Task: structure prediction
Amino acid sequence: MQAFQFMRANSIQHAIGAAAHASTAQQGASVRYVAGGTTLLDLMKLDVEYPQLVIDINRLPLGEVEHTATGLKIGALVRNADLAQHPVVKRDYPVLSEALLSGASGQLRNMATTSGNLLQRTRCMYFRDTAMACNKRQPGSGCAAIAGVNRMLAVLGTSEHCIATNPSDMNVALMALDASVVIHGLRGERQVPIGEFFVLPGGDPQRENVLEPGDLITHVLLPAPPAGTRSHYLKLRDRASYEFALASAAVAVQVVDGHIQHVRVALGGVGTRPWRSPEAEQALKGRAPNETAFTAAAEAALRDARPQSQNAFKIELARRCLRHALATATA
Ligand SMILES: Cc1cc2nc3c(=O)[nH]c(=O)nc-3n(C[C@H](O)[C@H](O)[C@H](O)COP(=O)(O)OP(=O)(O)OC[C@H]3O[C@@H](n4cnc5c(N)ncnc54)[C@H](O)[C@@H]3O)c2cc1C
Ligand code: SF4
Result:
């Protein structure tokens, strides 16, 4: 681990101001906020991340979940364990509770926060090994995974520069819930729909989202679900706990008079970003919730999948995962 400066922020403005000051005073010094630390500290110990300034944001008043007339306002520092057990989340957004509880372990969920989970980095093993070529860690160095061990990696949204998956379970559920991310930066506050928050790797895999240097996530907003919506998260993995997804599906479905009226479909473990599938949603809208419709949706969701040498199995696994999640949600 490399030496770094450390400070605690007392307010949102203090945090943003300190990040901006460090960037200007030290000519583009890299700055990281630390929340639960369960991603950042690992990566700092591995020398994958080496910020010059670490700003602890745990004193900021961002640890509450507010139930408003329009939905839920989740503070960036709400711990994954608390969010999963929140009574309104369990009642109105079960897909989110299930996704959170399927991730990591009890100890990690007690530390991990909403914003940290949103921004967790890929688990591609070459990214975490500074001896290996990795365009995400070291732009222009190449991608060791493409000709290497790629069984866990993505089949959707890949580029010739990077095939890493977004590993978060929570992010997949947020896609199915039409979440928005509230960001505070030097230019004020803005809200970004979750579907526009993550970017594809393209030729610049180092950039994973639309955040600018020094931007602080303060909240995640969830709109109230359409009346009668049922939602579900299904995660398939090599072992039953403490393991990242090979494939997962988050679905939210409203059935009216025997037909699907509102539907959201998102996949995890298979995309370079949490993967919303408008194609699958289109295949389901207006149809009766049955096996024929679910199969059509699963085909549509994976139509553009491009496997690597070791992960073709994920395509059929993701199809089955989605069919099963839809059947459970609408049963
Ligand atoms: C052994 C292990 C197993 C795991 N298994 C799973 C799993 O199965 N499923 C899963 O989804 N996850 C899993 N995780 C990942 C875990 O969910 C994340 O490490 C955790 O959610 C990160 O949250 P944190 O608060 O600790 O983030 P931190 O480590 O504090 O921060 C992560 C990143 O977010 C940035 N950041 C944090 N908050 C803000 C903010 N408010 N504004 C701007 N930037 C911010 C930090 O600068 C850093 O870059 C696992 C982790 C470990 C170590
Ligand atoms: S897949 Fe992406 S993260 Fe993994 S080695 Fe290639 S460039 Fe790096």
